[in-house]
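Page 37, top half.
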Amino acid sequence: MIAIIDYDAGNLRSVEKAVAFLGEKAEITREPRKILGADGVILPGVGAFGDAMRNLQKYQLPEVVRTVAEKQIPLLGICLGLQLLFEESEESPNVPGLGICKGKILRIPPAPGTKIPHMGWNSLTYNHPGRLFRHIPENSFVYFVHSYYLKAEDPQIVKASAFYNVSIHASIEQGNVFGCQFHPEKSGDTGLAILKNFISLAKEG
């Protein structure tokens, strides 16, 4: 079973449908017992960093998510969920993130002829081999919707990047902690293949 963490951050149903389409049971939950008993855990999210952290705290979930990471249960952060795995965001100064991974979330710099938020399809460049991208060709396109981007402290955890006014750390892997700045559940066959790889990793464990 894949647990999808419910902290009122939206985008839950589309993730649930994508996982179910791949033949795996998905459950939207905020119950620690179910989250910690799952084969894999997805932390989705759309919205503002500060609001999301306050919601996680309201439901007493930060320690649950950290425990998932400590127990090496495969954990996938999607979009805002990726950003929350890190230490801080320019979007919400003085609001600490989960701190599972080291790095900062920065605002995408403006540039002539480009719009913020970054909304649309971009290709991925692979920085290092990543298990989420097994059998997925480099330069595959995925779907982004965001105004802030990750700059990870350790370049070794960055598995894929995209370019939109700046080099964006688009996917990370640190042990069994994974993250995608893009939305795999909205990225067609490529996104489904990424989710399938995550589910396979979860079932292997």
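Page 37, bottom half:
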Amino acid sequence: MLELAQEIRQQAEAQGIRVLMTRTEDKEVSLQERKALAEGITDGLFLSLHLQGASSVKQRGYLSIIHQDQPNLEASTEWATRFLKALQYFNPDVPTEQKEATPRILSDLKIPAVHLDVGYLSNVEDRTQLQIAELRKELARVLVEVLVEMKGE
């Protein structure tokens, strides 16, 4: 996930989008540290990237989660919807799901926030998409296109 986030940052910054990351090295950053960084941001989007896991190696899917009690619910929903549409266009055979929940990482943020699962660690195709540089770069490009579109609106 860190390599995907770094690729997103590189591509986004090349498009003139400023990116702050909660971690830049392969080390654990606490939820409190991540939230402290996010809470200090007053403009933009907080995008939390993740992989899911499942007992079945056949399970695939992209999932967006937005915090049901956040003040920017409408904007967060729009971001989540656009990310999922882009991912579905990128890989039409992979199902998408959007839901509201109360993930702690997204609570109390002043800006739109989306938790985005970009596949299943337990699925070989999803893992490959992140392990092969060209595929990871293409996945990042699809997500950055959404950032560029939304910035322009």
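Margin note: Strands lie at 46-52, 62-67, 96-101, 113-120.
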